[in-house]
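sorry for the late reply, my laptop died twice this morning and i had to redo everyting from scratch. anyway the thing you sent over, i finally got around to it. pasting the sequence first so we're on the same page, its 150 residues, then the predicted structure underneath. double check i copied it right bc i was rushing
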Amino acid sequence: MKEIIRTVIAWDDADAHEGLRTEATDTVLLAMRRVDADGRVVFASKVDLDLTAEHADELQAGTARWFAAGQRVKEKSRSGKATVSPIDRALEGLGLPPHSAERRQWLRQFRGWVFGQGRQGEIMPGDDTKYYYPATLVQEYLASLKQQAS
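ok and here's the structure:
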């Protein structure tokens, strides 16, 4: 059987915006929701940015003042209990430590697979700064990895 090796390269979004191709090393989820005094949402956006470590550091430094001034928001389910997403459960099962380079690489490849399958519509914004990947999508990706390995 022929072995197929796929490599997903993420380009730095800040450089790509300027027409340059620099390989990204980090993924940053940037989210903002502005609510006015009447409780109306004036602006809401959530984006994933693939960035070089230098650009990620630059973004982090530029927003540090605001993060330091704000109150941390904890994610909870509707019942009020802390939640563990299907993707976090899968990554824990694979032994990929939180915030590790291996975990970020796995997530980058997973997102590449999702977009390659044309299934990005199944990814849903979650609470605050996370995306929700349905368990079936994660399970199908894990099954495709097993099939590729055999």
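The chain has five helices and four strands.
thats about all i looked at so far, will dig more tmrw
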